[in-house]
Protein backbone atom coordinates (compact mmCIF):
# COMPACT_ATOMS: atom_id res chain seq x y z
CA UNK A 1 0.00 0.00 0.00
CA UNK A 2 1.30 3.44 -0.93
CA UNK A 3 2.39 5.73 1.87
CA UNK A 4 0.03 8.68 2.35
CA UNK A 5 1.69 12.09 2.56
CA UNK A 6 -0.48 15.08 3.41
CA UNK A 7 0.89 18.59 2.91
CA UNK A 8 -0.97 21.37 4.72
CA UNK A 9 -0.63 24.76 3.06
CA UNK A 10 0.33 25.79 -0.48
CA UNK A 11 2.46 28.76 0.47
CA UNK A 12 6.14 28.90 -0.39
CA UNK A 13 7.22 26.03 1.88
CA UNK A 14 4.27 23.70 1.33
CA UNK A 15 4.07 24.09 -2.44
CA UNK A 16 7.81 23.57 -2.94
CA UNK A 17 7.73 20.54 -0.62
CA UNK A 18 4.87 18.92 -2.54
CA UNK A 19 6.37 19.58 -5.97
CA UNK A 20 9.86 18.37 -5.01
CA UNK A 21 8.54 15.28 -3.25
CA UNK A 22 6.62 14.34 -6.37
CA UNK A 23 9.89 14.57 -8.33
CA UNK A 24 11.95 12.61 -5.82
CA UNK A 25 9.58 9.67 -5.45
CA UNK A 26 8.67 7.18 -8.12
CA UNK A 27 5.19 7.21 -9.61
CA UNK A 28 2.83 4.99 -7.67
CA UNK A 29 5.01 4.71 -4.57
CA UNK A 30 3.40 7.53 -2.58
CA UNK A 31 0.06 9.33 -2.49
CA UNK A 32 0.57 13.08 -2.07
CA UNK A 33 -2.34 15.28 -1.02
CA UNK A 34 -1.95 19.07 -0.89
CA UNK A 35 -4.50 20.99 1.19
CA UNK A 36 -4.99 24.73 0.86
CA UNK A 37 -7.79 27.13 1.78
CA UNK A 38 -7.56 28.86 -1.62
CA UNK A 39 -7.43 27.32 -5.08
CA UNK A 40 -4.37 29.41 -5.86
CA UNK A 41 -0.81 30.00 -4.65
CA UNK A 42 -0.21 33.53 -3.34
CA UNK A 43 3.00 35.43 -3.95
CA UNK A 44 2.87 36.82 -0.44
CA UNK A 45 6.11 38.78 -0.77
CA UNK A 46 4.51 40.82 -3.56
CA UNK A 47 1.20 41.66 -1.86
CA UNK A 48 2.24 45.26 -1.25
CA UNK A 49 1.91 45.86 -5.01
CA UNK A 50 -1.80 45.06 -5.50
CA UNK A 51 -2.49 46.72 -2.11
CA UNK A 52 -1.27 49.98 -3.68
CA UNK A 53 -2.67 49.38 -7.18
CA UNK A 54 0.77 48.72 -8.69
CA UNK A 55 -0.32 45.29 -9.92
CA UNK A 56 -3.55 43.42 -10.52
CA UNK A 57 -4.60 40.77 -8.04
CA UNK A 58 -4.22 38.14 -10.74
CA UNK A 59 -0.51 38.93 -11.01
CA UNK A 60 0.20 37.74 -7.47
CA UNK A 61 -1.92 34.60 -7.43
CA UNK A 62 -1.27 31.48 -9.47
CA UNK A 63 -4.02 28.86 -9.93
CA UNK A 64 -2.96 25.59 -8.31
CA UNK A 65 -4.78 23.68 -11.02
CA UNK A 66 -2.20 24.97 -13.51
CA UNK A 67 0.79 24.46 -11.21
CA UNK A 68 -0.22 20.88 -10.40
CA UNK A 69 -1.34 19.86 -13.89
CA UNK A 70 0.25 16.55 -14.82
CA UNK A 71 1.78 16.12 -11.35
CA UNK A 72 0.96 13.11 -9.10
CA UNK A 73 -0.48 15.43 -6.46
CA UNK A 74 -4.11 15.47 -5.34
CA UNK A 75 -5.34 18.93 -4.42
CA UNK A 76 -7.99 19.53 -1.76
CA UNK A 77 -9.39 23.03 -1.37
CA UNK A 78 -10.42 23.18 2.27
CA UNK A 79 -9.62 24.78 5.62
CA UNK A 80 -7.62 22.91 8.25
CA UNK A 81 -9.31 23.06 11.66
CA UNK A 82 -7.37 20.48 13.71
CA UNK A 83 -4.31 18.24 13.65
CA UNK A 84 -4.18 15.10 15.79
CA UNK A 85 -0.58 13.86 15.51
CA UNK A 86 -1.19 10.90 17.81
CA UNK A 87 -4.04 9.52 15.71
CA UNK A 88 -2.42 10.75 12.47
CA UNK A 89 -5.58 12.56 11.39
CA UNK A 90 -6.14 16.06 9.99
CA UNK A 91 -9.62 17.54 10.39
CA UNK A 92 -10.88 19.87 7.67
CA UNK A 93 -14.06 21.88 7.47
CA UNK A 94 -15.24 19.37 4.88
CA UNK A 95 -13.99 16.08 6.35
CA UNK A 96 -10.90 14.27 7.56
CA UNK A 97 -7.62 13.02 6.12
CA UNK A 98 -5.46 10.26 7.54
CA UNK A 99 -1.72 10.21 6.83
CA UNK A 100 1.47 8.25 7.20
CA UNK A 101 3.58 11.41 6.91
CA UNK A 102 2.49 14.98 7.44
CA UNK A 103 4.04 18.24 6.23
CA UNK A 104 2.77 21.27 8.15
CA UNK A 105 3.28 24.52 6.24
CA UNK A 106 0.33 26.56 7.47
CA UNK A 107 2.21 29.83 7.70
CA UNK A 108 1.90 32.39 10.46
CA UNK A 109 -0.69 34.58 12.10
CA UNK A 110 -0.45 38.27 12.90
CA UNK A 111 1.20 39.18 16.20
CA UNK A 112 -0.52 42.19 17.76
CA UNK A 113 1.71 42.32 20.86
CA UNK A 114 -1.33 42.97 23.03
CA UNK A 115 -1.93 46.45 21.58
CA UNK A 116 -5.52 47.34 22.54
CA UNK A 117 -7.73 47.84 19.49
CA UNK A 118 -5.15 46.85 16.88
CA UNK A 119 -6.84 43.59 15.94
CA UNK A 120 -10.27 45.19 15.89
CA UNK A 121 -9.45 48.37 13.97
CA UNK A 122 -6.23 47.68 12.07
CA UNK A 123 -5.92 46.06 8.65
CA UNK A 124 -3.29 43.43 7.83
CA UNK A 125 -1.55 42.31 4.65
CA UNK A 126 -1.30 38.52 4.54
CA UNK A 127 -3.47 37.57 1.56
CA UNK A 128 -4.67 38.74 -1.83
CA UNK A 129 -8.07 39.43 -0.29
CA UNK A 130 -6.52 41.68 2.35
CA UNK A 131 -4.49 43.49 -0.31
CA UNK A 132 -7.72 44.17 -2.20
CA UNK A 133 -9.37 45.44 0.99
CA UNK A 134 -6.53 47.89 1.64
CA UNK A 135 -6.62 49.15 -1.94
CA UNK A 136 -10.37 49.71 -2.01
CA UNK A 137 -10.32 51.28 1.45
CA UNK A 138 -7.72 53.86 0.41
CA UNK A 139 -9.61 54.60 -2.81
CA UNK A 140 -12.80 55.07 -0.79
CA UNK A 141 -11.05 57.54 1.53
CA UNK A 142 -10.11 59.64 -1.49
CA UNK A 143 -13.64 59.33 -2.89
CA UNK A 144 -15.20 60.47 0.40
CA UNK A 145 -12.90 63.40 1.06
CA UNK A 146 -14.32 65.90 -1.49
CA UNK A 147 -17.77 65.30 0.01
CA UNK A 148 -16.63 65.31 3.64
CA UNK A 149 -13.19 66.99 3.91
CA UNK A 150 -11.98 65.56 7.22
CA UNK A 151 -8.15 65.34 7.53
CA UNK A 152 -8.29 61.83 9.02
CA UNK A 153 -9.61 60.52 5.70
CA UNK A 154 -6.32 61.46 4.03
CA UNK A 155 -4.05 60.44 6.92
CA UNK A 156 -2.61 56.95 6.49
CA UNK A 157 -0.64 55.01 9.11
CA UNK A 158 1.47 51.92 8.42
CA UNK A 159 2.54 50.26 11.65
CA UNK A 160 5.84 48.41 11.47
CA UNK A 161 8.95 49.32 9.46
CA UNK A 162 10.26 45.87 8.72
CA UNK A 163 10.41 44.54 5.18
CA UNK A 164 6.64 44.36 4.64
CA UNK A 165 5.94 47.75 6.18
CA UNK A 166 8.64 49.55 4.21
CA UNK A 167 7.68 47.95 0.91
CA UNK A 168 4.03 48.81 1.47
CA UNK A 169 4.65 52.41 2.51
CA UNK A 170 6.95 52.91 -0.47
CA UNK A 171 4.33 51.66 -2.90
CA UNK A 172 1.57 53.72 -1.30
CA UNK A 173 3.80 56.82 -1.48
CA UNK A 174 4.17 56.26 -5.24
CA UNK A 175 0.42 55.78 -5.63
CA UNK A 176 -0.65 58.94 -3.77
CA UNK A 177 0.13 61.49 -6.53
CA UNK A 178 -2.06 59.56 -8.94
CA UNK A 179 -4.90 59.35 -6.44
CA UNK A 180 -4.60 63.07 -5.75
CA UNK A 181 -4.74 63.90 -9.45
CA UNK A 182 -7.77 61.69 -10.03
CA UNK A 183 -9.60 63.19 -7.04
CA UNK A 184 -8.39 66.78 -7.64
CA UNK A 185 -6.85 66.90 -4.17
CA UNK A 186 -3.53 68.71 -3.49
CA UNK A 187 -0.80 66.24 -2.46
CA UNK A 188 0.09 68.37 0.58
CA UNK A 189 -3.30 67.52 2.10
CA UNK A 190 -2.30 63.83 2.34
CA UNK A 191 -0.17 62.49 5.20
CA UNK A 192 1.54 59.10 5.22
CA UNK A 193 3.12 57.85 8.47
CA UNK A 194 5.34 54.84 9.09
CA UNK A 195 5.51 54.00 12.81
CA UNK A 196 8.19 51.69 14.20
CA UNK A 197 8.79 50.65 17.82
CA UNK A 198 12.49 49.99 17.24
CA UNK A 199 15.00 52.88 17.02
CA UNK A 200 15.42 52.39 13.27
CA UNK A 201 13.52 51.22 10.23
CA UNK A 202 14.46 47.95 8.48
CA UNK A 203 15.85 46.11 11.53
CA UNK A 204 18.69 43.84 10.42
CA UNK A 205 19.71 46.02 7.48
CA UNK A 206 23.08 47.78 7.65
CA UNK A 207 23.08 51.49 8.61
CA UNK A 208 24.07 52.82 5.19
CA UNK A 209 21.22 50.92 3.51
CA UNK A 210 18.78 52.13 6.17
CA UNK A 211 19.93 55.71 5.60
CA UNK A 212 19.43 55.34 1.85
CA UNK A 213 15.94 53.90 2.32
CA UNK A 214 15.00 56.76 4.66
CA UNK A 215 16.30 59.33 2.20
CA UNK A 216 14.31 57.88 -0.69
CA UNK A 217 11.07 57.47 1.25
CA UNK A 218 11.23 60.85 2.97
CA UNK A 219 11.64 62.44 -0.47
CA UNK A 220 8.34 60.78 -1.39
CA UNK A 221 6.65 62.34 1.63
CA UNK A 222 6.78 59.47 4.15
CA UNK A 223 6.88 60.66 7.78
CA UNK A 224 8.74 58.25 10.07
CA UNK A 225 7.92 57.82 13.74
CA UNK A 226 10.63 55.52 15.13
CA UNK A 227 11.29 54.51 18.71
CA UNK A 228 7.71 55.33 19.70
CA UNK A 229 5.47 52.27 19.40
CA UNK A 230 1.74 52.26 18.91
CA UNK A 231 0.14 51.63 22.31
CA UNK A 232 -3.57 51.79 21.45
CA UNK A 233 -5.88 52.01 18.47
CA UNK A 234 -9.42 53.36 18.61
CA UNK A 235 -11.83 54.04 15.74
CA UNK A 236 -10.11 56.83 13.84
CA UNK A 237 -7.37 57.32 16.43
CA UNK A 238 -3.82 55.95 16.83
CA UNK A 239 -2.02 56.52 20.15
CA UNK A 240 1.80 56.48 20.31
CA UNK A 241 3.89 55.82 23.42
CA UNK A 242 5.35 59.33 23.38
CA UNK A 243 1.85 60.73 23.83
CA UNK A 244 1.27 61.77 20.23
CA UNK A 245 -2.20 61.08 18.87
CA UNK A 246 -2.75 60.58 15.13
CA UNK A 247 -6.25 61.04 13.76
CA UNK A 248 -6.58 58.50 10.95
CA UNK A 249 -9.22 56.34 9.32
CA UNK A 250 -6.49 53.99 8.08
CA UNK A 251 -4.12 51.86 10.17
CA UNK A 252 -2.34 48.99 8.43
CA UNK A 253 -0.44 46.68 10.80
CA UNK A 254 2.69 44.86 9.59
CA UNK A 255 4.45 44.76 12.96
CA UNK A 256 4.95 41.07 13.58
CA UNK A 257 3.98 37.43 13.16
CA UNK A 258 3.48 34.44 15.41
CA UNK A 259 3.00 30.72 14.79
CA UNK A 260 -0.24 29.24 13.56
CA UNK A 261 -2.64 28.53 16.41
CA UNK A 262 -3.58 25.16 14.93
CA UNK A 263 0.02 24.02 15.45
CA UNK A 264 -0.12 25.10 19.09
CA UNK A 265 -3.47 23.39 19.70
CA UNK A 266 -2.17 20.16 18.13
CA UNK A 267 0.22 19.81 21.05
CA UNK A 268 3.49 20.23 19.17
CA UNK A 269 6.31 21.68 21.22
CA UNK A 270 6.47 25.40 20.46
CA UNK A 271 8.43 28.48 21.48
CA UNK A 272 6.71 31.44 23.21
CA UNK A 273 5.38 32.95 19.97
CA UNK A 274 3.75 29.70 18.92
CA UNK A 275 6.23 28.45 16.32
CA UNK A 276 6.97 24.73 16.35
CA UNK A 277 10.32 23.43 17.50
CA UNK A 278 12.03 21.07 15.04
CA UNK A 279 15.12 18.87 14.92
CA UNK A 280 17.94 19.20 12.39
CA UNK A 281 15.83 17.44 9.75
CA UNK A 282 12.83 19.76 10.26
CA UNK A 283 10.81 17.06 12.02
CA UNK A 284 8.52 18.19 14.83
CA UNK A 285 10.00 17.42 18.22
CA UNK A 286 8.73 13.99 19.29
CA UNK A 287 7.11 13.16 15.92
CA UNK A 288 9.30 11.54 13.27
CA UNK A 289 6.34 11.40 10.88
CA UNK A 290 5.63 15.15 10.98
CA UNK A 291 7.75 17.68 9.10
CA UNK A 292 7.46 21.46 9.42
CA UNK A 293 8.23 24.18 6.87
CA UNK A 294 7.85 27.93 6.65
CA UNK A 295 6.65 30.48 9.19
CA UNK A 296 4.88 27.98 11.46
CA UNK A 297 8.23 26.67 12.75
CA UNK A 298 11.58 28.20 13.61
CA UNK A 299 15.25 27.38 13.19
CA UNK A 300 18.11 28.89 15.18
CA UNK A 301 21.18 30.43 13.56
CA UNK A 302 24.77 30.00 14.75
CA UNK A 303 24.27 32.75 17.33
CA UNK A 304 21.28 30.93 18.81
CA UNK A 305 18.73 33.40 17.41
CA UNK A 306 15.79 32.42 15.19
CA UNK A 307 16.12 33.09 11.48
CA UNK A 308 13.56 35.69 10.37
CA UNK A 309 10.44 34.23 8.73
CA UNK A 310 11.14 34.94 5.07
CA UNK A 311 10.08 33.42 1.76
CA UNK A 312 13.62 32.30 0.92
CA UNK A 313 13.84 30.40 4.21
CA UNK A 314 10.42 28.79 3.62
CA UNK A 315 11.46 27.71 0.12
CA UNK A 316 14.68 26.16 1.42
CA UNK A 317 12.72 24.42 4.16
CA UNK A 318 10.32 23.02 1.57
CA UNK A 319 13.24 21.63 -0.40
CA UNK A 320 14.79 20.06 2.70
CA UNK A 321 11.51 18.57 3.92
CA UNK A 322 10.86 16.92 0.56
CA UNK A 323 14.40 15.55 0.39
CA UNK A 324 14.28 14.10 3.90
CA UNK A 325 10.77 12.75 3.55
CA UNK A 326 11.78 10.99 0.33
CA UNK A 327 14.81 9.60 2.20
CA UNK A 328 12.48 8.24 4.88
CA UNK A 329 10.30 6.58 2.26
CA UNK A 330 13.27 5.09 0.44
CA UNK A 331 15.30 4.05 3.49
CA UNK A 332 18.13 6.52 2.86
CA UNK A 333 19.94 8.74 5.39
CA UNK A 334 18.46 12.18 5.92
CA UNK A 335 20.40 15.43 5.53
CA UNK A 336 20.41 18.15 8.21
CA UNK A 337 18.83 21.43 7.20
CA UNK A 338 21.41 24.21 6.84
CA UNK A 339 19.91 27.52 5.67
CA UNK A 340 21.81 29.55 3.12
CA UNK A 341 20.71 33.17 3.38
CA UNK A 342 21.26 34.67 -0.04
CA UNK A 343 20.55 38.24 1.00
CA UNK A 344 17.56 40.52 1.45
CA UNK A 345 16.27 43.31 -0.76
CA UNK A 346 13.58 45.84 0.19
CA UNK A 347 11.58 47.58 -2.49
CA UNK A 348 11.06 51.31 -1.94
CA UNK A 349 8.36 51.79 -4.55
CA UNK A 350 8.68 52.26 -8.28
CA UNK A 351 11.88 50.64 -9.49
CA UNK A 352 13.91 51.57 -6.43
CA UNK A 353 15.23 49.28 -3.69
CA UNK A 354 18.02 48.66 -1.21
CA UNK A 355 19.55 45.38 -0.17
CA UNK A 356 22.44 43.06 0.36
CA UNK A 357 23.33 39.96 -1.64
CA UNK A 358 25.54 37.30 -0.10
CA UNK A 359 27.92 38.45 2.61
CA UNK A 360 29.35 41.58 1.07
CA UNK A 361 27.56 42.99 -1.99
CA UNK A 362 25.29 45.94 -1.27
CA UNK A 363 23.02 47.47 -3.84
CA UNK A 364 20.54 50.29 -4.12
CA UNK A 365 18.38 51.93 -6.75
CA UNK A 366 17.57 50.12 -9.98
CA UNK A 367 20.32 47.54 -9.48
CA UNK A 368 18.80 46.39 -6.19
CA UNK A 369 15.34 46.36 -7.76
CA UNK A 370 16.66 44.21 -10.62
CA UNK A 371 18.12 41.74 -8.11
CA UNK A 372 14.78 41.50 -6.33
CA UNK A 373 12.95 41.03 -9.62
CA UNK A 374 15.41 38.33 -10.67
CA UNK A 375 14.86 36.37 -7.46
CA UNK A 376 11.14 36.41 -8.16
CA UNK A 377 11.70 35.10 -11.69
CA UNK A 378 13.92 32.32 -10.34
CA UNK A 379 11.21 31.27 -7.92
CA UNK A 380 8.51 31.24 -10.60
CA UNK A 381 10.79 29.10 -12.76
CA UNK A 382 11.35 26.73 -9.84
CA UNK A 383 7.63 26.05 -9.37
CA UNK A 384 6.99 25.92 -13.12
CA UNK A 385 4.93 29.12 -13.24
CA UNK A 386 6.79 31.22 -15.81
CA UNK A 387 4.82 29.87 -18.73
CA UNK A 388 1.50 29.45 -16.92
What does this structure look like?
It contains ten helices and 24 strands. By secondary structure, the protein is of the alpha/beta class. The protein has two domains: 3-110 and 257-338, 3-Layer(bba) Sandwich (FAD/NAD(P)-binding domain); 128-253, 3-Layer(bba) Sandwich (FAD/NAD(P)-binding domain), CATH 3.50.50.60. The strands form eight sheets. It has a five-stranded parallel β-sheet with strand order 5-2-1-9-20, with helices on one face. It has a four-stranded parallel β-sheet with strand order 13-12-11-17. It has a three-stranded antiparallel β-sheet with strand order 6-7-8. Strand 15 (237-240) and strand 16 (245-247) form a beta hairpin. The radius of gyration is 22 Å and the shape is globular. The mean pLDDT is 96.
CATH second-level architecture of the largest domain: 3-Layer(bba) Sandwich
Can you count the helices?
10
- SS-derived structural category: alpha/beta
Q: What's the CATH topology label of the largest domain?
A: FAD/NAD(P)-binding domain
Seen as an oligomer or otherwise, the chain set is single chain
Distance between the termini: 34 Å
GO molecular function: NAD(P)H dehydrogenase (quinone) activity
GO biological process, one term: aerobic electron transport chain
Cofactor: FAD
Protein name: FAD-dependent pyridine nucleotide-disulfide oxidoreductase
Amino acid sequence: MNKRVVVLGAGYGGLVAALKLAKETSAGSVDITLVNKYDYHQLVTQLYEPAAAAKRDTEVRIPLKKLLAGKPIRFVEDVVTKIDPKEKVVTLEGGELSYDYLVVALGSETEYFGIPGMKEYGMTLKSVDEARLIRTHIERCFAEYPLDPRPELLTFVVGGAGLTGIELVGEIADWLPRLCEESNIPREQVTLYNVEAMPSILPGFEPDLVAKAEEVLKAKGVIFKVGSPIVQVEPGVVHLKDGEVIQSRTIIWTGGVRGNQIVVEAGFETEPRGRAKVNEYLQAVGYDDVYMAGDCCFVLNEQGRPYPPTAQLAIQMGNSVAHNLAADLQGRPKTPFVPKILGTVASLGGRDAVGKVGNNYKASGRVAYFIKDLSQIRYLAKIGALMK
